[in-house]
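Sample intake — C6 zinc finger domain-containing protein
Collected from: Ophiobolus disseminans
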Amino acid sequence: MATPRRKACVECRQQKIRCDVEQHKVPHDPCGRCKKMGLECRILPTSTRNLRQTKAEMRRELEELRWNMRSGQAPGSDLGYPGSTASPNVDMQGYSPHEHGSGTYSNPSIKTDGSVSPSFESRPPTRKGSDNRITLPRAIDGYLLDGKKIDDCFTLFFNQYHPLFPVLDPSLGPNEFYELSPFLFWSIIVTGSRRYSEDRMVLEKTSQHIVPLAFASMARRAAQIPVIEGLLILCIWRIPTNSMYKDMAHLMCGAAVHLSTQIGLHIAGVGQDFVREPLKKDQDQKITRARLWLCCVIQSIRTNIADGLPPTAESLLDCDERDRDNMVPYLPADLQFLHKTYIITLRAVVALSKTNLQSINCDVRVLRSLISVFDQQMVSLSQSAPKEIDALQLNCARIHILAFHFFAHPTNPGPDAEALSRLYSLCINVIQGAVTLVQQSYFSFAMDRSITLAGFVILKLVRSSIAGHLDLVAGEKAFFQAVHFLTSVSLQPGDIYVRTAHIMKDLWSSNKVFRRKNGQVESLGLRLRTRLGMSVSYDMFWYWREEFGNMQNPYNNGDETIAPSHDPTRPNSPREQHHQIANVRLMTEPAHSQIQPQQIQAVHMNPQIPITKFDPSLVQMQPDPAVMSFDTWDGSDYNGPPMMDQFPDYDWAASFDFSNAEFPAMPAGAIGGPMIPGNMGNMGYTFG
């Protein structure tokens, strides 16, 4: 006769240890462990070990508790979605997401009197596979988004955005992404809703809460890879804002890089040295980590260059990738191409930054030699571009490198006309290519900053002494194509894109920009010299602030080129604006400028016609030694204050608070006439 199997008490069974309880004795005495620890020793005929909750189960339970707290109902109560009082984990069987909008739901399990039918279960659907699983509605800080709009935003993201920079696994559905990371889920929603025409409020509502959710997710220190992926998405397709001061892309990009190094993505393999448990040598995991690190490197360099900031940890980003050669066949060709592009850009920026750029008397020969070397590397790499958009991004990076030509002394030894002409043609081609591609896809790889830089380069060159060697008609057309591009990619009224477009139009129509106190036009120099290639753009923003924002120029040491607000040449009432255009133009032009009397008469007879087209004949192309001798000029007009005395950034202007709704009513400077000194609302522009 077989000996009956001994049973363990509940406590010992939970701990999986040997139990010495005498189970046949009734009532039985406590086992040695329970007696020693003062525990209740129980023997159950069907005792089973209670398994721990998985992370997904705990996340769903936490989400349900939060919903119960918001609605004020007791835990465990089962109410439907009407009135937004139900748990988000209700069974969605019978729910038709194509028939209801955000915030309004119906469920056949809920009766008209509010009671719940017996077939209703308060649990999430357990079907496997995303094809037959209904997308659940989700909420972020009280804003409820139904399943249909979630599906629409996910479809837009994976069709229009994700192929341009493949970071995620497209086989997962919305529910799987939410269980993986709520922050990653909402990052996809924010990006996919950028061009969601059925409900523009989705972008406005979700973008308000995504940044706090991003920082909260980073603080949790859990599921770091989904957090890194969400941060990269928000850095690639930036959250719309009306001020560069409010743009968090640079901070989130740095966080993504540092989180990546913290879990060892910069090391080839599975990152065993960065965890406490043995890891399985999984080839798929190696490929995933290598691809994600490639994305981090690309976006980190791209974000820094677009913001005019030195790339952080350049030695880390430019590490030797030979130990990843076995990953090359498994990585997308476009990512490999972009990685090579931005590594060359990184090396160029680091090398050029060491040529004493802060001084106008830097070694021009070394500067131009370095620019030529790295630009030739870019040209050689461009022949292997997988797609047209990849070639466009390479050309944008070339503009950032070639823009360093403006750091050279404008007259000593003189401008490099051939190199600047090539830069001029490149800017025209980039703008035309961007305008063409923006109609085909929703790309945004810091492209707005590159297009802005290209437009300002064209403006500087058409006002320079080499303008006679350039196709001015093509340049003017490309400049206004850039303005149209920025307007077309605008997502909200008065955002950065729209404001930049207004600034560019103001500066193009201005005859005071680049004009020195003695009337000489000098556009090839730089006053602001610490923002890499983007110094050109930030310098142009200061020209705009000085003329149209009534702000003092901090870079010319008292040599004011623009009349102050109390100067009689500036109009002081709306009635005087159009009548004083011709007078202002006459008082600001040098005596030898060729202004036709017919032009003056036309302005007086029809004051509604703004002066928007630049006339090259109004600019003296060659410097007049009698007026200004550049041979003895020490560059005092372009020397900025010492480095420690400068603002760390231009965030100081962010204290001006102007809503988006007020921006369209603001005067557009020279587009509608000179600015009114008493209405300086557009000083709130905080470009930089």
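Post-analysis note: Residues 307 and 534 are 7 Å apart (CA to CA).
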